[in-house]
Amino acid sequence: MSDEEDYKKLHPILSSVTQTYVDLYTNKPNEKNREQLIKLEKLLHEKLDELKKARGEENS
Question: What sections of the sequence does the record tag as coiled-coil (predicted)?
């Protein structure tokens, strides 16, 4: 067995926490993209609501 496999068997919780931190730092750029997409989605919904209101006022 490799040292890494031994370590995982001896310290499963610590190994899992370490992997979580590695995953978080690895995916951090994706998190920034996700936050930007959420902001753009909010802006899109606001603009769509404005359009719906404007069309509703025009059709009345």
Answer: 30-57
Q: Report d(CA 24, CA 20) in Å as an integer.
A: 6
Helix axes 3-10, 12-26, angle to 10 degrees: 110
11 and 19 Cβ atoms separated by less than 8 Å: no
- The set of residues, in sequence order, having a beta carbon less than 8 Å from that of 8 and lying 6+ positions away, is 15
Does residue 60 form part of some domain?
no
| Cβ within 8 Å of residue 7, ≥6 positions away | 15
Mean pLDDT for each consecutive 10-residue tract of the chain (60 residues)? 80 84 78 86 91 75
Q: What is the pTM of this model?
A: 0.47
Token representation of residue 42: 């909010």
